[in-house]
Amino acid sequence: MNDDLSFLSATEIRARIDRKEVSPVELVSAVLARAEALQPQLNCFITLCGGEAMAEARAAERKMMAGEPLGLLHGIPVTVKDIVNTRGVKTTFGAVPYKDNVPNEDAVAVARLRAQGAILIGKTTTPEFGSKCLTDSPLFGRTRNAWSAERSSGGSSGGAAVAVASGVAPLAIATDGGGSTRIPAACNGVVGLKQSNGVIPHSQALDAFGNQTYVTPMTRTVADTALMMQAMAGEDSCDPWSIGVPVPDFIGTALPRGDLRGQKILYCLSPPGRPVSADVDAGFKASLDRLAGLGAELEEFSGEGFDIEPIWRAINHTVWRTRFSKLVAEHGDALSEAFVKQVALATNVSGVTYQEAMFARTALFRRVQSLLARGHLLAMPTLTRTALPIDQDLFGTIEIDGKHFDSVRPHWFPWTMSFNMTGHPAISLPCGFGRDGLPIGLQLVGRFRSDADLLRVSALFEASHDLLSRWPD
C-alpha cells in the first residue's frame, strides 16, 4: 500500500476490498507503519494495537479470499478515543490513575463497528475524561495539530481528528460533550458529527436520562460519516433515548444528489458580544454563498438566547464534581491543574441552581425548535478563530485578531455546547482556510432526529468545493 492509499476514503477502500484490489493485511500493515512514523511528531495515540490488529487483518483476508459474506466495514482500520471502552485494550480516559485500566467489554458503538468487520488499530489521545477543548494530559503530553506543530489539535477528541486528518486511519470513534468532536474537526479540517440524542446508543453514560454527551463518528468525508452511522446507529436497551429510534438509509441519503431548492437555512455569525475573526467571517460568508448557489433560501436569525456558558457550566461541572471529587481527593497530584480546577468549579452550585439550569436547557430546546419550524437547518461558524497555540491555557485569555478575551469556552466555541443540551444533530464541515493556512469549519444544525437529511445537505456542500484535495504536509 502506498501513501496515496493512506488518503483514500473508507468508502473507496470498502469498494476496493470488495473487488479484492486491496488486501486487509496490506492495508492494516501500512496504517500501523504510518501511525508509528507520525506518532513522534503528532502524538495522537495513547495505545497502538499492532499485534491484535494484524491478527484481525489476517482473519479478514482469509474471509475475503474465501468469498464469505463481508460486513459493512470489513478490513477497514478504525481508531477509538481513549475514553470509549474497548474489550481487552487499555482505556485510560487520558488519566494517570487509569493508565492500566482494561475493560472487559466494548462500548456499544465499538462492538457494532467490530461486528461489521472494522479493525481497531489504536486508542487516540484525550484530555482527562474528555474534560476540555485542548488535547493534553500528564499521561501523554500534548497532541499537535495536523497542519501545524505550533497549534493545538483542539479537543477533547484531538487525537481522533489528527489521526484522520493525517491519513493514519479513515475512521475514528470520538465523543462530544460540549463540542469535543466538532471543535477538533474544525481545527484539523475533517468532518465531525454530533448526532441527535439517541441515534447512537451511549452505553457509558452514568445519567442516561439527563445525558448530554455522545459517542460520535469522525471522518474525512460526509460519505464516510454516513458509513459509520449506518454501522453504529440503532436502539439498545442501555440507552432509553435510543429505544424506538429507526435507522434510515444513511449511506444512500448522504449521496450528493440534487440541490437545495426548497430548503431554508437560517444563519447567524455569533451570539451578541462574541467576537469572530476576519478570516472566519469571510469563510462563513463564502459558505453561505455556496449554500445559496445550491438553491437554498437564506435568512438571518438572532443569536439572542444562545450565550449559554453559565447553563452548561452549572450542569456539566456538577456532573464532573459528582463523578470525580473522590478521584481528585485520592489522586490530585497525578491529575492536571486544569482538571482539578474544573472539578472544583461546581463546589458552590446548589441543587436549586442546577435545576434552574435544567429549566433553561428546556427553554433552549424550545428556542431551537421554534427556529427549525421556520427553517430546515441552522448555519454558523464552528469556531470563532483557527486552532489555538499549542501551549494555550484553558483558564488563560484567548486572542482573536490581536485582541484578548478573558475566557476560552464562550469566546472560541459559543455555538457548540447548545446542541449538546438540546439534542439536535450538528456537524462541522471543512469550509476553507485562514491566512495562517489552518482550516476553518462551518457548523450546520438539523431538525431533531433528521440526521440523514443533515448528511444530505452536508454532502452537497462538500461537493461544492475542492477542499478534499488539500492535505497537511
Gyration radius, rounded: 21 Å
Q: Per the principal axes of the C-alpha atoms, what is the gross shape?
A: globular
Sheet having the most strands: 11 strands, mixed
- According to DSSP, the number of beta strands is 15
Summary tags:
11-stranded mixed β-sheet, alpha/beta, globular, Amidase signature (AS) enzymes, 15% strand, 473 residues
Short description:
The protein contains 16 helices and 15 strands.
Architecture overview:
It is a single chain. The chain has 16 helices and 15 strands. The strands form three sheets. The chain has an eleven-stranded mixed sheet with strand order 1-3-2-6-8-7-14-15-11-9-10, with helices on both faces. It has a two-stranded antiparallel sheet with strand order 4-5. It has a two-stranded antiparallel sheet with strand order 12-13. It has helices at residues 3-6, 10-18, 24-42, 50-65, 108-115, 158-165, 182-188, 222-232, 250-253, 278-293, 309-331, 337-344, 351-374, 408-412, 417-422, 451-463, and strands at 45-48, 77-81, 119-124, 136-137, 141-142, 171-176, 191-194, 214-219, 264-267, 297-300, 377-381, 398-400, 403-405, 426-433, 439-446. The protein has a single domain, classed as Amidase signature (AS) enzymes. With 473 residues, the protein is of the alpha/beta class.
Helix-strand layout with pairing:
Blueprint: H1 3-6, H2 10-18, H3 24-42, E1 45-48, H4 50-65, E2 77-81, H5 108-115, E3 119-124, E4 136-137, E5 141-142, H6 158-165, E6 171-176, H7 182-188, E7 191-194, E8 214-219, H8 222-232, H9 250-253, E9 264-267, H10 278-293, E10 297-300, H11 309-331, H12 337-344, H13 351-374, E11 377-381, E12 398-400, E13 403-405, H14 408-412, H15 417-422, E14 426-433, E15 439-446, H16 451-463
Parallel strand pairs: 2-3, 2-6, 9-10, 9-11
Antiparallel strand pairs: 1-3, 4-5, 6-8, 7-8, 7-14, 11-15, 12-13, 14-15
